[in-house]
Fold this protein.
Amino acid sequence: MMFKDELTYRELNNRYRNIINASLGEAMMRPDMPETLAQAMKYSLLAGGKRIRPCLTIGVCDIMGGNRKMAIKLACGIEMIHTYSLIHDDLPCMDDDDLRRGQPTNHKVFGEGQAVLAGDGLLTYAFQYMLEAGLSFNNSGYYRAIAEIAKRAGVCGMVAGQSMDLIGETKGIKDESELKYIHQHKTADMLIASILAGAFCGSTTEVQLKCLEAYGGKIGMLFQITDDILDASGDPKLLGKSVHKDDEHNKLTYVTMYGIEKAKKLAESVAAEADRLLFNTFGENCKYLYDTVRYIINRSC
Ligand code: GRG
């Protein structure tokens, strides 16, 4: 049942997205950045995207009754880091893609050198932006969040996953545990960081943090399964990026491993596990997180 003044998931997400987009726009208004570099950074950062990670940060902060101002700064930092990873992932030395977020990839417009720098710029600026804001918050939870983001974005997290993924493309992937490692780090870690960052903005207990971390792992896996299904059978117009890339790169995916129908069944069972985790710790008091599970499993972009 929905109360009259309760927002639907779509309405709430739109509100979060508007806050994030406006804050990202403001964050990029810096006269001290060289014009071409700033243009290349803004080109990818302000090009849309689902904003699922920063929405999760604000959504979890709201559930925990946390400090929204802190969550917005962290959410923007996370989206900058995510965007850098997309720019670098699209480069010819990695996935070599022409289309991202419905427009030509960064290196197609600005050239490879500026695209590398736009990614580097977004990564370092994300930490400058979050840390400068931290000076006024002076809150230990806020710094714990930044440390979590750094860990999960870096050499023990997303970068590690991407490195193993590249190695797997040439040497092949030995077994399912190697594939799990890649997905856990390349895809799930940034989702977990986004969720925990929101949690650190409020007084979240260690038991709740453990539950949120495990939930993040489940939606990370779910995100990857749906990504593999969309790459095999999605609409490139809706996705805003090319499809059948996994085939081109001979990648082992949930679809190549199990076929589409079994991959869909696996997605349903992972979604049910995510719901169960939430219910055991939060009961029904985290509607936004249950709705996020449904959003990911039903997504067409
Ligand atoms: C270059 C260090 C480095 C890492 C790259 C982003 C990434 C890691 C790889 C992209 C390949 C891929 C399909 C990963 C699976 C999940 C993922 C990160 C998808 C893209 O994120 P979305 O769908 O994109 O949230 P939008 O544009 O909506 O933000």
Observations:
- The chain is about 75% helix and 0% strand.
- Residues 49-50, 52, 82, 85-86, 88-89, 101, 158-159, 162, 186-187, 223-224, 227 surround geranylgeranyl diphosphate (CB under 6 Å).
